[in-house]
Amino acid sequence: MRRRDFVKAMVAASASAKTMLGQQTGTQVAPSVPPAVPPAPPTAPGPVPWMRGLMEVKPLSIASIVPDAVAQTDAYFFNEQQLATLRRLSEILMPPLKGYPGAKEAGTPEFIDFLIGVSPMERQQMYQSGLDWLNADAKKHFGVAFRHWRRARLTNSFVRG
Description:
Elements: H1 2-22, H2 67-70, H3 80-93, H4 108-117, H5 121-142, H6 151-160
Helix pairs in contact: 3-4, 3-5
């Protein structure tokens, strides 16, 4: 309680001092220090060699550039069989849902192909061996490559077995 009373007294004292100083009827003393004027913003440097020709360039409108129309993603790291397996796996893990594109429609397999292509050798080997194993296991259990595998095949094998 003592601390609270002390804080109340300090606030009251500072408020009353400001009020008493504001009610003086004498002449007001002008502040001795003029108010600080903010410095002018720095001006751009004059023409420098790296700015030459920039004033004449007109930027392209953003709406006219469509990324898909400019460049195509080239899948180059995985072989055709591995990429087909990756596409099917992407389709299974993230199918289109409620009108939104799935992983395959969003280009995820192609992005993974690019990403793994620039990854360390250990990661590249892990992905390649994993896709090869997935394809070989599908052929072993279901007699068909993983890219041709359908959910009904798995369901039927579980029902029978």
